[in-house]
Design a protein that fits this description.
Elements: E1 10-15, H1 19-31, E2 36-41, H2 44-52, E3 65-68, H3 77-86, E4 95-99, H4 104-112, E5 117-120, H5 125-140
Parallel strand pairs: 1-2, 1-3, 3-4, 4-5
Helix pairs in contact: 1-5, 2-3
Length: 147
């Protein structure tokens, strides 16, 4: 089944243990006029439970997009990414790695694990607003292609 985005606000899962970064991401999307509902998990195990709809997340929605930090407690972002892309029911959800790291090793490993995109975290609100608008164009309002 193909989950095609609707005109309803996008369901975005932010997987990040830094509360300041989470707040800035939310603010940037609001400032950018991007209609979205945010869900936040603070570690890799919570993220996978949310995606698999386990325990307290049994009623969680299917995200339209996942913003994933690499450095997480309990289960790293790399491990989360690998599990998402290994599961048939999850692999179509776009995963954007949003990390402070710009190391070649981190970038290459994320793409080896099938990240849809790797973006260094912008250092200011304007950069995050631009990023939000780009992500909206790429994954939240896709073009319809004729078959």
């Amino acid at each position: 089944m193909c989950d095609y985005p609707s005109s309803a606000p996008a369901e975005i899962l932010i997987v990040d243990d830094n509360a300041c970064d989470v707040r800035l991401i939310k603010e940037a999307f609001r400032e950018g006029g991007i209609a979205s509902k945010f869900h936040v998990t603070r570690d890799g195990e919570q993220a996978l439970a949310f995606l698999r709809r386990e325990g307290p997340y049994s009623g969680s929605p299917r995200p339209s997009l996942i913003l994933l930090d690499l450095n997480l407690p309990r289960k790293s972002g790399r491990e989360v990414l690998a599990e998402i892309k290994a599961e048939q029911s999850l692999r179509r959800i776009p995963v954007v790695v949003l990390s402070a790291s710009t190391s070649r090793e981190d970038v290459c490993r994320a793409y080896e694990l099938q990240a849809n995109c790797y973006v260094p975290k912008p250092s200011d609100l304007a950069g995050l607003i631009d990023l939000g608008r780009l992500l909206q164009k790429l994954w939240l309002n896709p073009a319809l292609l004729s078959g």
